[in-house]
Amino acid sequence: MVATSHTPRPAVRPENPHFSSGPCAKHPGWSLENLQDACLGRSHRSKAGKAKLSAAITQSRDLLRLPEEYRLAIVPASDTGAVEMALWSLLGARGVDMLAWESFGSGWVSDVTKQLRLDDVRVIEADYGGLPDLASVDTDRDVVFTWNGTTSGVRVPDGDWIADDRKGLTICDATSAAFAQELPWHKLDVVTFSWQKVLGGEAAHGMLVLSPRAVERLENYTPPWPLPKLFRMTKAGKLTEDLFKGATINTPSMLAVEDYLSALNWAEKIGGLPALIGRADANLQVIAEWVAQSDWVDFLAADPATRSNTSICLQIIDPWFTGLEESEQAATAKRIGALLEAEDVAYDIDAYRDAPPGLRLWGGGTVETKDLFALTGWLDWAWAEIRATAAG
User: Fold this and answer.
1) What is the mean pLDDT of residues 319-343?
2) Which of 66, 192, 275, 316 could form a disulfide with 270 if both were Cys (CB 3.0 to 4.6 A apart)?
3) Which of 75, 26, 23, 49 minimizes the C-alpha distance to 255?
């Protein structure tokens, strides 16, 4: 006979069970009707198409409060494409410090060391849950890092470690931080993000922010390797300015553009960037209060100052669980997600495949705080069911 838990099934369910860390939940009030004005069946280079693309850039700039002299472009292949454009176009002019404390940062390290094969590379790493020694970073070299570790739930607390008078460029993958965390733009020379993260847009489109220092590098440095067409941002030694006005390198989905505009309009209506950050912070607080009272789960991020308010990563600390083999831990953690998906309570909350076994909850601004609060009761219920089954 299989034992059952004594934890009652919660009475309240999240109204929206979408807690995936990418693509992320659509914004409250989203519907297909929001896309009726999409510029479909028209060239993206038509007057109407360019107006939509230009609006996406302008509204993003305004929402993020970009400095006037910074440029912003829509680029192919999501955040990954934006980062690759930066790495292949800008690196090699000087030595580079590569920071990695989770899988995406490690991926950029692999690209630079195994694909670009740069000679002067320092890799500064930390295990999941921690940050590298930021004090050891030399910003007179180029620096590549993620602002928010999507797969570890660990973010840099600030930009104080980046020198204002640096000689190198800072290249920042901020896809799960943009629109949810304050970014010190004067410390950042290249910033990348994607539509499907914090604003819950559709995938395949990336955004690339360049500071004047990054533009200067582009116009005065030619990498020693061939650049694919998708990566080229200059012509005859000058920046291709049209790229930053909506003249995309390849054909974008105008349906996805309309969806992104819908998210931007929603964000403006609720109060812009401060409101988005406030919603994400409130979501993190709900989880923090629950974790503080839990005896089976804790944050993966060891330092509260580095805990992400978007990709909230949790580890299971129950002694029974920690005593299992790693493969059994992974299977057990996945059972939590499977139980809750079967109940239509939460979708896609498993830890990232390369991360320690556990859970990952998206807490960005498109997620309602009351839904995360409701989810915590179901998490306790699922864990109690698993423990009761193991005991039986």
Assistant:
1) 97
2) 275
3) 49
Supply the pLDDT for residue 111: 97
Sheet holding 71-76, edge to edge: 71-76, 205-210, 190-194, 170-173, 142-146, 96-100, 121-125
Average pLDDT across the chain, whole number: 97
Alpha carbons 386 and 389: distance in angstroms, whole number: 5
3-state secondary structure of 270: helix
| Structural domain includes residue 1 | no
CATH code of residue 375: 3.90.1150.10
Peptide linkage before 184 cis (omega within 30 of 0): no
Q: From 232, 230, 178, select the one nearest 209 (Cα to Cα).
A: 178
Tell me the C-alpha distance between 50 and 39, whole Å: 10
174 and 226 in a single domain? The answer is yes
CB 147 within 8 A of CB 174: yes
Length of the chain: 392
Please check whether residues 129 and 156 belong to one and the same domain: yes
Residue 344 in this model has a pLDDT that exceeds 80: yes
Q: Which of 181, 182, 176, 180 is nearest to 196 (CA)?
A: 176
Q: What is the pLDDT of residue 1?
A: 36
CB 245 within 8 A of CB 180: no
**Residues spanned by the domain of 118:** 34-268
pTM above the 0.85 mark? yes
